[in-house]
Specification:
The two termini are 19 Å apart. A hairpin with a 4-residue loop joins strand 1 and strand 2. It is built from no helices and nine strands. The chain has strands at residues 2-12, 17-28, 32-35, 42-45, 48-51, 57-62, 74-76, 89-92, 105-113. It has a seven-stranded antiparallel beta sheet with strand order 2-1-7-8-9-6-3, with no helix packed on it. Strands 4-5 form a two-stranded antiparallel ribbon. The chain is 0% helix and 41% strand. By secondary structure, it is mostly beta strands.
Amino acid sequence: MRISVPGTPVFDPDTGQYVPGPPEVLYEGPGAHRASGGPGLVLRLDGQPYKDDGDGRYRLFTPLSAPVAPEAAEVTIVTSVDGAAAGRVFTVLDPGETGTHAVVRVTWMRITKAGAAACPLLPSSPPTSKPSGRCWRRR
């Protein structure tokens, strides 16, 4: 899991505008995610079928040693046993939940981009290092 926030804006002399700087990584390490709702329901409005957009909410589980993810932070699944999960990107909905007897940190998020295609396949021989800003998915 990688949790990041937008970087400090930088001035682009070509356009004369400030553009988002590179993202600042708050946490990269172990974690898990799980869908929190089911698919949308088909409703009838004036006799016409209508498919609800669904919930699209997920929960992120990170160790208590991980920082609390701020609202609107971006969460990227860097690696996963499920190849379809690698590369998925989520937006944090609320700061991570806390409690007096917590075992893991739970953070609510919404999916913003499906993965797999965004991540290259893991090479047949293990890479010596992971390129910055990239993720690997298993074959």
